[in-house]
Amino acid sequence: MKTTGNTILVTGGTSGIGRAIAEKFHDRGNRVIVTGRRQALLDQIAAARPGLIPMPLDLDDPASLLRLTSEVRARFPDLNVLIANAGISRVEDVAADDWDVSDAEAIVRTNILGVLRVTAAFLPILKGRSDAAIMATSSALAFVPRADFPAYCASKAFLHSWLTSLRHQLRKIPVEVLELSPPYVRTELTGSEQATDPRAMPLEAYVAEVMRMLEREDHPRGEVLLARDHARRWAERDGRYEEVFAAMNPD
Q: Hey, what long-range contacts does 191-198 have (CB within 8 A, 24 or more apart)?
């Protein structure tokens, strides 16, 4: 994936990793469209970064995606990169007497169906572009889960598998398929505490490393994965899955 000269659409681009990546690509002279559900954040981005192009998108609303697709086709026919980053995460206690599946259903709608829907909407456009790419945000937790985030981790495991199949099916079509698998990063994905947690990787440091990996094309198998997360990635292959799982999920 080239890092300059693109027209890029970033879903979930109003905060966290999505916004940071959008800004980094914008710094490199790319035309960058950021989407999100919260109009206040879109307005904030427009004021802070006049070069970024904010557009509303609610992935739970088919009409919203249809409007966005139509507008992008009309205004940005040279779109060649989709970064499907929108995602949510919630703690779930399935042992609790009052547990229900509403949080899991919301996670599936956003993290799984949202990626599938936006890919289906824009893949026909990307197929006709040079230097086309799709990058979707998975997680290092796709490989070994945090058991207190069961649906979130499972949604990312789904994306890992699905992106592998997508990459194979598009192998004869010039659309690169990348999987971005962040570690624990200082964002508000799980709440405000994560944004200041010293155990989490600083957002700026993470995104800077991602950009370096993209520039060097350092993403074997299409996986944009930090070296620090290789132990989790290969835990099962290396016979260390139970050990790594126990370390991540102490009694």
A: none
Q: How far apart are CA 68 and CA 49, in angstroms?
A: 21
Q: What is the C-alpha to C-alpha distance for residues 6 and 182, in angstroms, rounded to an integer?
A: 23
Decide: 25 and 207 in contact? Cβ < 8 Å.
Answer: no
DSSP letter at 112 equals I
Q: How confident is the model at residue 158 (pLDDT cuts 50, 70, 90)?
A: very high
φ and ψ at residue 73, rounded to 5 degrees: -55, -40
Q: How far apart are CA 163 and CA 169, in angstroms?
A: 10
Q: What's the half-sphere exposure (Cβ side, CA atoms, 13 Å) at 239?
A: 0
Rounded Cα–Cα distance for residues 148 and 156 (Å): 14
Distance of alpha carbon 85 from alpha carbon 176, whole angstroms = 16
| Site of tokens 């999100």 | 36
Q: In CATH, which of 3.30.420.40, 3.40.50.720, 3.90.1150.10, 3.90.650.10 is domain 7-248?
A: 3.40.50.720
Tens digit of each residue's pLDDT (9 = 90 or more) over 91-122: 999 999 999 999 999 999 999 999 999 999 99
- 172: which strand partners? none
* Pairing relationship of beta strands 53-56 and 31-36 according to DSSP bridges: parallel
Looking at residues 188-200, what average pLDDT do you find? 89
Q: What are phi and psi of 170, to 5 degrees?
A: -95, 15
Q: What is the mean pLDDT of residues 30-38?
A: 95
d(CA 62, CA 117): 9
- Residue 233 has a pLDDT of 97
Burial class (CB in 10 A: 0-12, 13-18, 19+), 136: buried
